[in-house]
Amino acid sequence: MADSSSSTDNPLDPPPPTTPTSGYHLHPRREPFEHGLLPIPKLIFTDGAQALSQLKSTLLSSDSDHRVNLDTLARVLQIPIEQSRLIIETISSVLHDESDPLLKAGVSKEIDAIGVNVYDLLIFLYIQSYKRLLPKGHRDSAAVADVWPSTSAFDGFLSALSPLQLVRSNSRRFIPSQADEEVHQLSYLQKHIGNILSLLADSSEGEGDDSLVLSIDKFEHLGFLMYFGEKGIAKIPLSQSTPFFANSDPDMPAAPVPASQVLDWLLQSISSTQEHIADRVSPKENGPSSSDQDVQMADVGTTSLKPSSSTRGPSFIEGVSKSSCVKQASDLKGASVKVVNCHESVIYILAPLKYATVYGCSDATIVIGAVGKAIRVEHCERVHLITAARRICISNCRECVFFLGVNQQTLILGDNHKLQVAPYNTFYSQLGEHMNQAGVDPNINRWDESITLGAVDPHDSLSHPAGVSDAQAESATRVVPDQFIDLVIPNWLEGDQSGSTKDNPFPLPETYLASKQKNAKSLDEVKQILKESQLEENRKRELSSALHSCFKDWLYASGNIRQLYCLHGE
């Protein structure tokens, strides 16, 4: 198997490097840790290595092609079919190997039939034990008493990272930096890589440490969790970075290697990366904790926001306040974006992406073009999000409205309140091309279908009161058709870019289309009445003033006032 980033078939991938060098370091893949964790209790094993080893034997004996389909997965894990499908779709969204047939699948029926590779599944299940890094400066519930008003039993701890608190802190110290997260993920891998290798290894006739061996194809599955590479270059397939598989011929693959030898090499590589990171961040120890693009919110103005220059990490759009921000594909480095800590603003990201994260935003309208893998929205309040995506996860949000064009069911987790969903409601000229590049199908829109899981996320590091772990997340309601309106993206926001999209690529449901046509007809009738009315000048002024007042009230009540920032933001 080949690492996804080594392929040039995907238009979102950078070109591969010519030859690997010893100067590259081993890094964890962020995607499985950020988009691949599910709060399903039966996926978290107290003794992961032993339980998964038994599961491996069961799965390998049930299928000769090393793939696990929907029904088999549900049976062996003793979970509902809906959760089994969710697991396969989640693995598909974070899978490293672009050649895997699962990534070629479109609709759910194809995904169900193709299933997931046994070894990718085992790694996915193992990392469900991962605990996310506790935000810096956090002292659990006592430190976050000043958050949203207590409207639920979970507010004291689940709302710990509320956007209101982030505004008051006026910095990003409550959000782990990319460097901190990478160190945390490396530490996790350092501790658990031995167990993970044992799940990939085969038994041999040797004794002791040589009784387990690893073939090159099993070794490549580690690409699910890690890769070699540095800033500005594509990731390098793991097998091409090792001393024991580097020159292997596909027609004559290298002989299996003792797992103990592979473990020693991996631990040495992880230690080398940890030392490299320590050397890189040590000059900043007395300053704010930061990663490639982490900056303090207090120091960010709308003119200073710059995306990451690294293809290895995501581009950041951060700290936009009472303004607008427009980013085209040419403004972004790589195919991943994080929108963090933006308030009372309108954000346009008109680009094809693989991954997107919206975190800690409030009172904002955010348009994210086309996301081919996954988008996650977390700890947001009164945000209007418009996106075309393969899948979306919503966690710990309040009073947000999501206008969606999504190919899979929406995943809703955590402590949510008053969420609303509606069909996709906008377009820009390049949207069709961006959706094609990202792999988003306009003929499938499951905007009003959702899966709700636990209100408590077992992957966070916060303490939770006893008895709440079984609570289900609050689901979302549909926007009333009469309140559905289109979002108009001004043509000039696209600059010199132009495309062929001239309308919403997702067909509207009949009730929403009828309401839209009815409102358009009513508007035309009002225009005609005003045009034909014979009013004195003072009456015309009174009518004009009343219309402006009503329009202003609507702008503020609907949140559309934010779009006016485009007139003076950039």
Outline of the structure:
Belongs to the TBCC family. The chain is an alpha/beta fold and 570 residues long. It is 31% helix and 17% strand.
What can you see in these coordinates?
The chain is an alpha/beta fold and 570 residues long. It is 31% helix and 17% strand. The protein contains 15 helices and 19 strands. The protein has helices at residues 30-35, 48-62, 70-77, 81-94, 101-104, 108-114, 118-126, 155-158, 163-169, 178-200, 216-219, 259-281, 431-438, 510-532, 537-558; strands at residues 25-28, 67-68, 116-117, 202-203, 212-214, 226-229, 257-258, 315-318, 324-328, 336-340, 346-359, 362-378, 381-389, 392-395, 401-406, 410-413, 420-423, 450-452, 477-478. Strands 8, 9, 10, 11, 12, 13, 14, 15, 16, 17, 18 and 19 form a twelve-stranded parallel beta sheet that branches. A hairpin with an 8-residue loop joins β4 and β5. 42% of the residues are buried. Mean pLDDT is 78; it is low at 1-8, 14-21, 137-173 and 284-311. This is TBCC domain-containing protein 1. Belongs to the TBCC family.
Helices and strands, with pairings:
Layout: E1 25-28, H1 30-35, H2 48-62, E2 67-68, H3 70-77, H4 81-94, H5 101-104, H6 108-114, E3 116-117, H7 118-126, H8 155-158, H9 163-169, H10 178-200, E4 202-203, E5 212-214, H11 216-219, E6 226-229, E7 257-258, H12 259-281, E8 315-318, E9 324-328, E10 336-340, E11 346-359, E12 362-378, E13 381-389, E14 392-395, E15 401-406, E16 410-413, E17 420-423, H13 431-438, E18 450-452, E19 477-478, H14 510-532, H15 537-558
Helix pairs in contact: 2-7, 2-10, 3-4, 10-12
